[in-house]
Design a protein that fits this description.
Helix content of chain A: 25-40%
Radius of gyration of chain A: 27 Å
CATH class of the largest domain in chain B: Alpha Beta
Largest sheet of chain B: 8 strands, antiparallel, barrel
Order of helices and strands of chain B: EEEEEEEEHHEEEEEEEE
CATH superfamily of the largest domain in chain A: ATP-grasp fold, B domain
Oligomer: heterodimer
CATH topology of the largest domain in chain B: Glycoprotein, Type 4 Pilin
Radius of gyration of chain B: 20 Å
Number of domains of chain A: 4
Number of strands of chain A: 22
Strand content of chain A: 15-25%
Shape of chain B: elongated
Strand order of the largest sheet of chain B: 1-2-3-4-5-6-7-8
CATH architecture of the largest domain in chain A: 2-Layer Sandwich
Structural class of chain A: alpha+beta
Strand order of the largest sheet of chain A: 13-12-9-10-11-14-21-19
């Protein structure tokens, strides 16, 4: 096994990786920016090196600096975590050239899956279902024919597009011509290119993803699905495994499709194939993430497989010791991402110092975090406080456990989404499993706390006020320091001696 | 001792007994028995009317943050003099403030425009994310204090609204 690994990341995922290394008897090297000197990953690693200012571009994204530290510390491998350099083929390439093992897939797999058009092409060749649409850009005449063929609603998208510009949703044929004209003109003014393509619009889909894992000896397996439909700002906030919308037949089918696409790029390590699924259970390839995912713990909880530990073992060249039929699903896991953010203000981040944190605990409760009382959420990085994960026998009891755990959480100093998460857990539709990516938009009532009994808050506030004024009194009455008195006495007695 | 707090434009007057562990608390004239224990600097255990709660408290100048059961309550401790000034907000003037250091991306309303409760009035960008700040009342825009592109600090007043 490796003797030493550098972790090119920060926060809870760096802590997660350090713990996996400890269990495998591997020494760990942390890197940190200015802002992260007091962070937990620095304290837990065996070695730690400063790599630059707080802005990620000058530290966690500075490839050369990280490679330099790896060489100086004699680390044999680098785990990139997620975000930052995790899906940067250039970095994976640099590691390879320097003789350092990049814990993840080959630079080639990262490149193929990173380009959305190429990824779509690979998926198509591997007979993976794709959302119906035009093959690339279309002329006005073609557009009309294709729209009719794939059926409304249809989405017109700018080929050069992004960020919603040059995008038009068309619900019926009458509106098509006008929308096409507007999409083209918007695309021309935004990107200087008016070519557009068409895609079937899936109404409020579910977001379902399959965890896969492959070794460097050609074996690729799947670890079932995760349901990640509850999203805000197009970002996941609650994930679970398994999905209540998937039966064992569909699970097997989606798993096979995911493995097929991974095989098409000779995938190695942990990866995730993302799909969207319509109300009828038809699923379509969205993209493949060539890294460990934030929400990997729910899969670990139901399979008992430590994904991060396996990533390291695979990178070292070990073979997977189990086969597909050995992997069993047990119980249900739910993850809530606890963020320093304000749900009432459109989930705007709420950075600041966490004056007090009390995390929940108990059987089946896992809090993946790097935050302690006194930690700071800075505007340089993602404002996540922790990933709270629970496991129980059934979905129903897992939700109950999550409610209990969330109620134990106390965070002071910043705004959090804990109250919001509690309201989602208590929502009847969520409990029934009626969720899709439009869930939060459909329930704006979940964003604000209900007007509840604020008596305890008032009592506590009054107690805190009284306490503060008592302490101020004590401070006022306190005489000068005893040391000062003693030295004065000595000075006087010395004078007497003279 | 009497303490006065403002929470969501409501004034609460709390009368606290002198006792250390068990005390009578009066909220707006209504008495409730309370037993409490300070666990550490920021954590209190409160037992009242058969209900036990762990309550997190953070006092910062005039603001007292109280956290329990997932929700944060930001109370403002006010003096007698402020109680009168507090009336201004009851008359229905609201200021939309920047929640954090950010940049003004788009102002969605002009002075004099009508606004509805919950309607977006201004878009700011912080930490690479755009956020729409919403009206806290039904009324109209009375003043706009910033321009698109401005960099603003946390707490900067962006615009003022008055209710119908």
């Amino acid at each position: 096994m490796f003797n030493k690994i550098l972790i090119a990341n920060r926060g809870e995922i760096a802590v997660r990786i350090i713990r996996a290394c400890n269990e495998l008897g591997i020494e760990t090297v942390a890197v940190y920016s200015d802002a992260d000197r007091p962070s937990l990953h620095v304290a837990l690693a065996n070695e730690a090196y400063h790599i630059g200012p707080s802005a990620p571009g000058e530290s966690y994204l500075a490839k050369e600096k990280i490679i330099e530290v790896a060489k100086r510390s004699k680390a044999e491998a680098i785990h990139p975590g997620f975000g930052f350099l995790a899906e940067n083929e250039g970095f994976a390439d640099m590691c390879e050239k320097e003789g350092i093992v990049f814990i993840g897939p080959s630079p080639e797999s990262i490149r193929l899956m990173g380009d959305k058009v190429t990824a779509r092409k690979i998926a198509q060749d591997a007979k993976v279902p794709l959302v119906k649409g035009s093959e690339g850009a279309v002329s006005d005449v073609e557009a009309n024919v294709i729209a009719k063929k794939i059926g409304y609603p249809v989405m017109i998208k700018a080929s050069a597009g992004g960020g919603g510009k040059g995008m038009r949703l068309v619900r019926n044929e009458e509106d098509f011509e006008g929308s096409l004209r507007m999409a083209r003109s918007e695309a021309r003014s935004s990107f200087g290119d008016d070519s557009v393509y068409l895609e079937k619009y899936i109404e409020n889909p579910r977001h379902i993803e399959i965890q896969i894992i492959g070794d460097s000896h050609g074996k690729i397996l799947h670890l079932f699905e995760r349901e990640c439909s509850v999203q805000r700002r197009h970002q996941k906030v609650i994930e679970e495994a398994p999905s209540s919308a998937i039966n064992s037949k569909l699970r097997r089918k989606m798993g096979e499709v995911a493995v097929r696409i991974a095989k098409a790029v000779s995938y190695r390590g942990a990866g995730t194939v993302e799909f969207i699924m319509d109300q009828e259970g038809n699923f379509y390839f969205l993209e493949m993430n060539t890294r460990i995912q934030v929400e990997h713990p729910v899969t670990e909880m139901i399979t008992g497989i430590d994904i991060v530990r396996w990533m390291i073992r695979i990178a070292y060249g070990e073979k997977l010791t189990f086969k597909q039929s050995d992997i069993k699903m047990n119980g249900h896991a739910v993850e809530c991402r606890v963020y320093a953010e304000d749900p009432e203000m459109n989930f705007i981040p709420s950075p600041g110092k966490l004056v007090y944190v009390r995390a929940p605990s108990g059987p089946g409760i896992r809090d993946d975090s790097s935050i302690l009382s006194g930690s700071e959420i800075t505007h340089f990085y993602d404002p996540m406080i922790s990933k709270l994960i629970v496991w129980s026998e059934t979905r129903e009891s897992a939700i109950k456990k999550m409610i209990s755990a969330l109620r134990e959480y106390i965070v002071l100093g910043v705004k959090t989404n804990i109250g919001f998460l509690l309201r989602v857990m208590n929502n009847e539709e969520f409990q029934k499993g009626d969720i899709d990516t439009g869930f939060i938009d459909r329930h704006p009532d979940l964003l604000t706390p209900p007007s509840i009994d604020i008596k305890p808050a008032l009592v506590a506030a009054a107690l805190a006020m009284r306490n503060a004024s008592n302490e101020a009194e004590i401070a006022k009455e306190k005489p000068v320091s005893n040391w000062k008195l003693l030295s004065r006495k000595l000075a006087v007695s010395r004078n007497n001696l003279l | 001792m009497t303490y006065t707090f403002r929470f969501e434009d409501q004034i609460y007057i709390i009368n606290l007994g002198e006792e250390d562990i068990q005390t009578n608390v009066e909220i707006n004239g209504k008495k409730i028995p309370v037993e409490f224990k300070r666990i550490d600097e920021n954590l209190y255990s409160i037992i009242s009317e058969g209900k036990s709660l762990s309550v997190g408290i953070f006092k910062n100048a005039k603001r007292v943050d109280v956290f329990f059961e997932g929700n944060l309550y930001e109370l403002e401790s006010i003096s007698e003099r402020q109680k009168i000034a507090g009336k201004a907000s009851d008359s229905g003037i609201q200021e939309i403030k920047s929640p954090m250091p950010s940049r003004v991306v788009k102002i969605l309303k002009n002075v004099g425009d009508g606004v509805k409760l919950g309607e977006g009035v201004i878009v700011v960008e912080a930490m690479k994310m755009e956020s729409e700040l919403k009206s806290t009342l039904d009324g109209k825009v009375t003043e706009i204090k910033v321009e698109e592109g401005d960099a603003v600090e946390s707490g900067t007043v962006l615009l003022s609204l008055s209710s119908n």
